[in-house]
Each structure stands twice: as C-alpha cells, then as structure tokens.
Amino acid sequence: MTSVQHEEWEQRFVVPETMRTGLAQLQEASLQVAAQMQSSNSQRGSELAPRVNPLMHYGSPKLSARRNASLLTLARAASPSPRLAPRADTLDPAYGSPEITAIETTAQFLEWYAHVEGRLAADQDAESLAFASHLHTRLDECTRMEETVNKVEAALDTLRGDYERVGERTGGVRMACGVLQTRQGRLAQMAGEINERLDVYGSLGPITQFFNAPGDSVCMDPEFLPSLERAERALEFIEAHKDARDSELYAMRFAQCRSRALTLIKMHAQREFRRLGAQSNTNSASSEHVRVRAAATRLRPLLMALQQRGTEIHTNAVQVLADVEASYFQMRRIWLHAHVPQSLQSIEKEHTDEAAVLRDWCAFVMGVCADEGRLYAEFFGISSGKGLRAHEDMVMHVFYEQVRPRIIREAQVDVLAALCLTLLAYQRPNESNEPVEPGEPGELEAFYAVVGAVLEDAQQRLAFRAQAFVRGEITGYRMSADDAQAAVQWIRSVDSDDLADLADHWEYPPVQRLRWLVAQISGCVDTEVQHGLTDEALSACKQSIATHGARTVRDSVRGDANAEQLAHQFVTCSMTLADQAAEPDQTHYGGLNIGSARFSCDLPV
C-alpha cells in the first residue's frame, strides 16, 4: 500500500471558510482544557512537566493535508446540528470510527482524535514499516547466510588442515617409496649380478656338450658363434675373479672350449678350401670366381670371427688364423699357377708389338691382384695383410719372370722407350703425380712394387742402349761419297743469312739420329738421365760434325777455291741443327719420319 501524497490530501480535504469559525471555537475549547489540565497539575506541585496542547499547532498554516482533513471532520462533528453523528460523505471511510456516533464531551473527542491520529500515523508509516520489515527480512537472511559462510569457512579450514596432513603423510610415503625403490633396484642389480655369475658357471656344461657334438656341421649351427662368445665372456669373468672357488679349474675348462671352437673353424675351413682347390677350373676365370664367392658367403662369418680374435693377444687364435690363411692361399695358388701363365701366353699370341703385349700383361696381372684382394676381403673381412701381400708377390713373380727376360733381350731403343712409357702408365699413382682414385684397394701394393722394379730395369736398359746408339750411330758414323756430294749441294743451296729452314733440304745423318734419339728418350727416363744422354749425344754429334764431317766435305771439293768456306759453312749449319735437335719435343726431321725409323747396327747387347 502506497502513502497518499500531500497534494492529494489538499485536493480531497479542502477546509471551507464557513468551517473556520468552528475550528476557532474548537481551538479555544482546547485551550481551556489545556488550562484546566495545567491548573490541576500545578496543584500537584509541579511534579509533572507541563504538557503541550496537542491541538495548539492545528491552526498553523503548516498543517499537513492529512491533519487538515481530520480537523475538517472534527469541525463538522462539532458544528450545531440536530444530530452529532458524522456523515458518510464527509468522513474518510478509512479514518471514520463506526463506534463513535457523536462527540459530546471533550474526552470523547480526544478519544476519537487519538484513534484518528493513530490511524494516520499508521498509514503514513506503512511504507517505512514495510521497507523496515523488508530490511529486517533481508537482515535475517544475511545473518543466516553469514552463519552459513562461517560454517563453510570452518569446514574449509578443516579440509585444508586435513589436506595438509594428508600431503605431509603423502610426502613421507613417497620418500619411503623412493627408499624402497632404491633398495629394490640395488637388490635387483645384486640379483642380476648373482644370476650372471651363476650363469657363467652353469653355462660350462651346455657349451662343452655343444662343442663336443659329433659331426662336421657344428660350425654351421646358428648357435656356434654365440656359444663361442659366451665361453669367452665366461673366461674373462673368471680371470677377473681369480679369488673365487675353483676359478682355475673353470678357467681351464672354458679355455679348452674356446680352443675346441677355433679348431672346429680351422678344420671346417681347410676342408672347404681343399674341396675348392680340387674343383678349380682353369679355363673360365668368371666361373671360378662365382664358385669361390659362393663358398665365401658360407665361411665369411666364421673367418671374420677368427680374424677378429687373431688380432687379439691369443696365441692359439693367431696360429689357427695363420693355418687357415695358408690353406686359403694354397687353394688360390693351385688355380693361379695354371691360370696366370696360360693367360700370359694367350695374350702374347694376340700381339706382335712388344709394347702392346706388355700393356695387356700389366692390365691382366693388375686385375688378378685386385680380384685376389677382393676375394680375400670376402672371406676374411679385410683387404690387406701379410699373407695377402706374400700371395700377390707370388703372382707378380710369375709376371716378372716373363717380362724381365724380354726387356734384357730387347736391343732397339724405340721398343725400349715404348716399354718404359707403358710401364709408366701403370706406375703407382702417387709416384706419377696422378690423383689417387677414392676407394682404390690396398691389395695393389705388390703390383706397383713389381711394376716399379720392371720399370727400373727397362729404364736402365734404355739408357744403356741409348749410349750404345750414340757410340755406334753418331760417333761411329762415316760419311760416304754420296753423302758428301749431298752435303756440298746442301751448303751451296742454302742462304747463310737465313738458317731457319736448313732442315727442309738436307740434314747431316748424326744430327738426324740425335733428333730421333732425343724424341725417343723424352719422358721415358728420369730428367737427370735424359739430360745426361742428350748432352752425351749432342757432344758426340758436334764432334762428328767438326772432325769427320768437315774433313769429308773439304776432301770432296778439293781443288775448289771455296773448299774451306764450304767446310766452315757446313760446320756452322750442322751445329745449329744439332743444337735444335737436342731440344726435346722436336718433331721436324727434314722430311723423314724418324719416329718410325729404326736404326740397326751391330752394337753390343
């Protein structure tokens, strides 16, 4: 319920002018009542304080609309009328009192007025009371909520305390679990070590029984190499714990197992090698290689295990490996002793040129050495070794025995020069200043060594034959009458001021032979040796020009007034050509193909 506004009260209860007289009378009556009450109080001796007249402010202009309405009702009730009962249309039904029909005395008026005033106050404060009641309700709710929150906080504090206690206990349990896990790990490790040690001693029986099994195929069993490794690990363990009980006995037994395994490998490998040697085919190298590689696939795991143990300090393993390699190389020699000489003879029949034969021989033995190295690597896992080098030396020895006699017997300078160039092409790469091919096998060491030795023999033979050529073809040259006449015509036809084209017409034979010799030995021997041979040939040529040549020319034009001049001009022109011929890489030979010419004379071999 909303309260009535001030303007609404003014509009509903307007005090007319005709009622103001009654209101004045009512005010006077109330003053009298107040005076009476004051006089009665004064008689009591001023024990009570003077009371304020409740109607003293009702005539003021500041009266509220509600109280003006009440006074209007009271005035109407106090006005002279045949009946003192208030009318229903003049009284507010909300404030009228059905119990009061007429106001005859002041007490009745005051009772009625108190009733009306109480109703007015109640109506005026209804909204405030309702809001206050609402506030009290909310206050109660807040109080209950606060009590609930306090209970919840108390419960949360309890839970927090419980959580902290549980966390502390969990941390303690975790630490205890960590300690237990550490102990468990140590116990597991200790148990593993104990089991390992027990397995070492317990494996002796099965390993011994396995290696002593009858038959020749024990090595091909998949458990052979693992059993050998277990025996070696057990032996290492026992040697590391020599203070254990019966350690010497167990060490001896395991060493016997290892020796038995290595012996089985040697026996099986030697048996296979003997079978391969008996079935060798000297006619087809490709089929032989296919057959040997097939055997290598089966033997490679065993031989690699033996090779690995042969590099360690095991006397028995080293000796077993040496015996197996000897059997292998014996098998290969059976085939090579027949194949290499037969192949060299076949190559020799295909060519008539010595250089071509040597070239194909070098290519063949180089391929043989490379194939032997690859086969050895397929069996033993490595491409080099002392045994392999000795084996390849045997192959190259056959080659050397075939090549060296041919070089010693050769007397022609141009053939020896061609042989030297062929051998230089197969020289060791780092010695010939050529880049080494990546991945080049190390098994060619024997080949390069023998090629170097043969090359040295060929170069020595070439130098010897070159010196013999100088002595026989240059120093020992004697000019014939026809050559003397040709020399005179040549001198008379050339211009002494233009010596650039002297060799276009004719050339003194020793100069021509000097030019040919220099071209042959160029690049075939060492630089110092080449310079020495060139200087020796040039000196011999100039001496032949100055002595024998000049004298022969002078004698051929005897009686001519210009004989001395012709001889001098012959010497000058021939010396110039000789100096030009001594320079290397000269290909101009006066219209003669000296490169293909071959001088043969009865010289000492």
Distance between the termini: 156 Å
The percent of residues in helical segments reads over 70%
Tell me the series of helices and strands, N- to C-terminal: HHHHHHHHHHHHHHHHHH
- Note the overall shape: elongated
What is the number of beta strands? 0
Radius of gyration: 71 Å
Q: Could you describe the largest sheet, including whether it forms a barrel? A: none
Continuous helix count: 18
Structural class: mainly alpha
Whole-number average pLDDT? 78
Low-confidence stretches: 44-66, 77-98, 432-441, 587-605
Residues in β-strands, percent: under 5%
Plain-language structure description:
By secondary structure, the chain is mainly alpha-helical. It contains 18 helices and no strands. Helix 15 packs across helix 18.
Which tags fit this structure?
single chain; 605 residues; mainly alpha
Write the layout of secondary structure elements.
Layout: H1 6-12, H2 20-43, H3 65-78, H4 106-124, H5 126-202, H6 204-211, H7 224-240, H8 247-278, H9 285-310, H10 315-350, H11 354-380, H12 386-409, H13 413-425, H14 445-475, H15 481-493, H16 509-521, H17 527-556, H18 563-581
Describe the structure concisely.
The chain is mainly α. Helices cover 71% and strands 0% of the residues. The longest helix has 77 residues, at 126-202.
